[in-house]
């Protein structure tokens, strides 16, 4: 038994037989031709054939993995018709009187090098696209099929790397998993594997290719990135068990898609997703989230070397609002402090950052930062169903200040004739005991509360979250915390506001019943927990004795 | 000749897909559509060269459009940029 470690790009487990991917990497020779004109004609025919193949692959990808992922094959067609690429090939044929295969191969090299030398990982990956279309063209010239097929039966396809067209061309019915020695998780192959729901592990290293042969027994664990060659009985039994549990769980979750979040007695609750960037949108939608309950805006500040501009923020917010197509999106304003250092904020080191200069305290002290974010948010509000949420609230006067700034920003945008969404809900985080205790005074000022259970727990129990020694003292189910949540829920409803929970406790299904009994209206959890939580809600019956 | 500048908002810049769509759009017009960034200039119908410019988020580019249908081409391209990039 040998275990190779790679990077899992789609979580699932496959157990099966190796099929080493055979590419007819035509060895291209430089040959003199007497009639370059005939060679050019041969090139034209091959190009037409290659374009037809790509059109077919595009159609196949469109059916199997959707338009967004199929588009690369449309781009491939356009690259193949690119003027400079074609001129380069023709010129080599004409001036050097050589065979078309050689001219394509040289041209591919030049263009691939251009992309590979760029200082941008995304563009570097395009070098693979140039090679992919060129190999196809060469295959068409020499009359071979572009990609060879896996052997009969279901196989685990193992390769050095797979071009996107090779991945899609494989007969999906016969592929159990992909394992590649190289590749990146940004590559189209990784993306396609995820969309085809095929377990895939990349970057297992060159030694793997030397070790395997057709017919070897292999286990691919897309969760851990392990690829196990010739597994022993114990490992095989363990992985088989893990596989069947995984399949059962996925089947159960699939079953839950499109279903309502309703208990047996008819109590409904919204289940939203927490995301930390625009790329969280895909998983949120794929897991059937009813909205975004917490969009952490910090990533915009953390990824940047300087304050993100209004335009940059606007573009990100708009993308998520449009992506959710009218479903609620709650964006939390900047929540940083001395524990999440950002150099250009120039925050002083603090003895006790959790109790320090952070979140709304920074925003109210440095209103220029706050106004830029609010302008971006209100501009984006015209493109969807936005809620704005403010972190670390402890007092009524903070909320009043915030509301005054919001009004002035809206006024400013209106005077500039910039459209603003009609109804933008305003909410606050309940994450300090102070906010929970005075929730009766806060609720009339806002549309909603969202309970941040992680901070609420740490502040209520006086337990630093970062200190592992305190774990035994930090009971996340502590009655004090639950009572504060219940008090907030009662006060919210008394004043016509709604209340959600967006901290880690929202995903804790042992508390779901307690939360629903308190009248919590929304639970927001990270995307993979949306469906399991729906399952838990649907199994509850609140009409039974409390 | 019609000229306008545009600052890229899209986080990944003019990557493969929008470059492809932009090249396709420019081909619908008889006018020549040039895109300039700094010293470099490219005819946007040339997809590989366009991708090779490595235009990123925050870059400001200048379009120069010249030909019989320059008016319509400039309008279409400006709309495309605003909507996609």
Overall description:
The complex is a heterodimer of chains A (546) and B (85). Chain A is α/β, with parallel strands linked by helices. Chain A folds into three domains: 1-17 and 154-167 and 174-235, Glucose Oxidase, domain 1 (3-Layer(bba) Sandwich); 24-141, Enzyme I, Chain A, domain 2 (Orthogonal Bundle), CATH 1.10.274.10; 263-539, Phosphoenolpyruvate-binding domains (TIM Barrel). In chain A, 47% of the residues lie in helices and 15% in strands. Chain A is built from 22 helices and 16 strands. Chain A has helices at residues 36-65, 67-80, 83-96, 100-116, 121-124, 126-141, 164-169, 188-195, 206-211, 233-256, 281-286, 298-302, 310-323, 360-365, 367-380, 396-415, 433-437, 439-442, 453-461, 479-494, 512-518, 530-539; strands spanning 2-5, 7-10, 13-20, 155-159, 175-180, 200-202, 217-221, 226-229, 270-275, 292-296, 328-332, 385-390, 425-430, 448-451, 498-501, 522-526. In chain A, a hairpin with a 4-residue loop joins strand 7 and strand 8. In chain A, helix 1 packs across helix 6 (126-141), helix 3 (83-96) packs across helix 4 and helix 13 runs parallel beside helix 15. Chain A is globular and about 90 Å long. The relative contact order of chain A is 0.09. In chain B, helix 1 (16-27) runs antiparallel to helix 3 (70-84). Chain B has a four-stranded antiparallel beta sheet, with helices on one face. Chain B is α+β, with helices and mostly antiparallel strands and 85 residues long. Chain B has a single domain (2-84), classed as Histidine-containing Protein, Chain: A (2-Layer Sandwich). Chain B has three helices and four strands; from the N terminus they run E-H-E-E-H-E-H. Classes of the chains: A alpha/beta (546), B alpha+beta (85). Chain A binds chain B through residues 71-72, 74-75, 78-79, 82-85, 111, 114-115, 118-120, 122-123, 126, 129-130, 278, 311-312, 314-316, and chain B through 7, 9-13, 15-17, 19-20, 23-24, 45-49, 51-52, 54, 56-58.
